[in-house]
Specification:
This protein is of the alpha/beta class and 246 residues long. The chain contains 7 helices and 6 strands, in the order βααβαβαβααββα. The structure holds farnesyl diphosphate.
């Protein structure tokens, strides 16, 4: 990949006004195909984009960056690709945790990650515990994540609390649902980006996106960088957010 001049992010801080940005990282396969490379090469280049964008998010003073890395539907992919993705995730946590920690990043995983391979679960839990007391931005990685599954788990949790007499069903409110979701302690979602030209949410943060601004770009995920994130944030800044008011 051609090396790019590092953009000056200082002028964009904190004028963009976004606290929480989430990204559906799409297009790794097409990026590889265009280069006659195997899909794993696209995913590897996708990890490089994750590193670039995580650094940019820190420099742009985002409070939280959430990245959709593996959906609860991605198990339908060939076993070899699933294994490649799990391998990349494992390697990413092992190799980048020190840098995250040194920069005060809190690493979070959303999704039903406890259903993953036990050795990956313990790596994830150690990484989250090690960075939990940091005060910098949150990098949240969605793993084995599906919004419908997240809402189903939240509904079951609230139903169990109601059955146990801890809350009355008619008293359950929006705040209770927020608190039962994987994103309970993350800031409200401001901007949801999807790369690769597709314009759908693919079961990602459906509840949280209720008032998020949506931004679609044709850029394939492995090409995404700090400049592209700044462009999305510039667009976000120009939006008139009314939250149902006028
Ligand atoms: C979509 O591209 C991308 C994914 C399903 C996985 C995203 C994973 C990474 C960027 C790498 C691992 C992540 C981390 C956080 C280390 P696609 O394969 O659906 O592309 P296509 O639609 O062009 O085929």
């Amino acid at each position: 990949m051609a090396s790019q001049a590092k953009p000056d992010l200082s002028s964009a801080v904190p004028a963009h006004g976004a606290r929480h940005v989430a990204i559906i990282m799409d297009g790794n396969g097409r990026w590889a195909k265009k280069r006659l490379l195997p899909r794993i090469a696209g995913h590897r280049a996708g990890v490089e984009a994750v590193r670039r964008v995580a650094r940019a998010a820190r420099e742009l003073q985002l409070e939280c960056l959430t990245l959709y890395a593996f959906s609860s539907e991605n198990w339908k992919r060939p076993a070899s690709e699933v294994a490649d993705l799990m391998g990349l995730l494992r390697h990413f946590i092992q190799s980048d945790l020190d840098e995250f920690h040194a920069n005060g990043v809190r690493l979070r995983i959303i999704g039903d990650y406890r259903a993953l391979d036990p050795s990956l679960v313990s790596l994830i839990e150690d990484a989250m515990a090690r960075t939990a007391a940091n005060s910098g931005p949150i990098i949240a990685i969605a793993l084995n994540y599906g919004a419908q599954d997240e809402m189903l788990r939240a509904a079951r949790m609230l139903a169990a609390r109601a059955a146990a007499g801890e809350i009355a069903a008619q008293d359950i409110g929006v705040a209770d649902i927020n608190a039962a979701l994987d994103t309970a302690d993350l800031p409200p979602l401001d901007l949801l980006i999807r790369t690769s030209g597709e314009q759908r949410l693919s079961n990602f943060m459906l509840w949280q996106a209720a008032y998020a601004e949506l931004y679609f770009t044709d850029m394939l995920w492995p090409d995404f960088d700090a400049k592209a994130l700044m462009k999305a944030l510039d667009c976000f800044r120009s939006r008139d957010r009314r939250f149902g008011g006028r």
